[in-house]
Amino acid sequence: MTASQPAATERRVDRRPRLRRLRALGRFLSGWLPRTLLWQTFLLVALLFTLVLAVWSQIFRYFEEGPRAKDVAQMVVSVVNLTRTALINADAGRRSELLIELAALEGIRIYPAEVSDEVQPLQDTRPMRLLIAEVRRNLGEHTRFASRWKTLDGFWISFRLDADDADEYWAMLPPERIAKPHALEWLAWGGAALILALLGAFLIVSRIGTPLRLVARAARMVGSGQTPPPLPESGPQEISVVARAINQMAGDLARTDADRTLILAGVSHDLRTPLARLRLGIEMSGAPEDEITAMVADIEEMDRIIGQFLDFGRGVPQEPLEQVDIRRMVLDLIEPYRLRGTLVTLSLPENMAELLVQARSLPLRRALANLIDNALRYAGTALPLDVSVEVDAEQLSIEVADRGPGIPPDQVDRMRHPFTRLEQARSNTKGAGLGLAIVERIMQSHHGRLDLLPREGGGLRAILRIPITASSSSRARMAASSGGVQGA
């Protein structure tokens, strides 16, 4: 290793804290930046206009200082020359009256100068330096300047009655004669121009943001299975092209959805009718009872799988929201399972004759039935299923708990996808793997969610969570305790 290599390594090590600080600063600034395209673009345009106005002001000021310094210097030189001439030509007895008139009418005061005078120099700025150089060029290098003489503030300049005279005098000019005129007016006009520019920038950017919001809303409606209203195809060419493409896509999807509905209706008729005839033929075949039972079970499983394919193929439920009595719906849905001998423990909120919630009745029944069927398929019928309903101020929860093998936590997200089953269930469990996918889609249509949680002691807790909206019944918004066991 050469001597330069350790030094390079040290430089790289020294850069790391600096890079970390820069990254931290970038993350901090990004947290304060607006998120929308409208305000991000407006902020950039506003910064650009402000920077341009500041640069233009500095350029104007730089090139305006020279001519203005010459004009002010010419005025100062003229005042000094006129004052000198008046003092020289005035009678000695009337000089005092002349000085009083200059102070009263012109604001110019004349005092004799001494070497020991206490003075405060002028500000060291470029305009003052230009002014001093121009005045000295006309009055001589001996000319002195001050912003305060003794205790008096003003623009002080020294002069001599004669170039060869050693006596000097101080002349004080009012500061407003030297100060830049109309500074506040220039600042006000510059601020007004900046405000008008920012208003114009906001209007320009909003012309882009509004069509983009309409496109985003249409895309969300298409993603949820709805047909959005046609977007206006007017405006700039780029926006109109996007709007036309969105309208064409929405129309194509609507036609595809109509064709899919027609195909599903045909499939339902063409497949289920032969299955019904096949079941009737098997039951009348005179075969042994156990063989008939097995074949009928296979036909029922085929019919159920066809039903799942049809449910999944219909897409997002399109039924309108209505007031649904969840208590009555769960009781009606559980009753057929009990009649078939399934052990079901049901827990409903107490002190509620009915539980009304805005929902889609048929899809919600289908979701709950899928959960119960899945629980029976994986857990069997030896142990009872626990079905419970809970409600609070924000959401309604319908839970189906079994004592089956459950779902490993790392497999929960995968099980929400269509045609997916657990690996250990592939060899001995029937089904197409669409049950949970259908439930997930139904929950999305209700702006709710499906939770798949492990159950203490073994098993699975499948919970339907539906948010309670402002239009829901006041009974549904009441917090109620669960625990009223209705039956087993």
TrEMBL record:
UniProt entry keywords in alphabetical sequence: ATP-binding, Cell inner membrane, Cell membrane, Kinase, Membrane, Nucleotide-binding, Phosphoprotein, Transferase, Transmembrane, Transmembrane helix, Two-component regulatory system
EC number of the protein: 2.7.13.3
Pfam family, one: HAMP
Residues in HAMP domain copies: 206-258
GO terms for MF: ATP binding; phosphorelay sensor kinase activity
Top-rank taxon, per record: Bacteria
Topology term for the membrane: Multi-pass membrane protein
InterPro entries: 2C_sensor_his_kinase, HAMP_dom, HATPase_C_sf, HATPase_dom, His_kinase_dom, HisK_dim/P_dom, HisK_dim/P_sf, RisS_PPD
Reactions this protein catalyses: ATP + protein L-histidine = ADP + protein N-phospho-L-histidine
Enzyme category, top tier: transferase
GO CC aspect terms: plasma membrane
Residues annotated as domain Histidine kinase: 266-470
TM region positions: 37-60, 186-205
PANTHER family in alphabetical order: SENSOR HISTIDINE KINASE ENVZ, SENSOR PROTEIN CREC
Protein name according to UniProt: histidine kinase
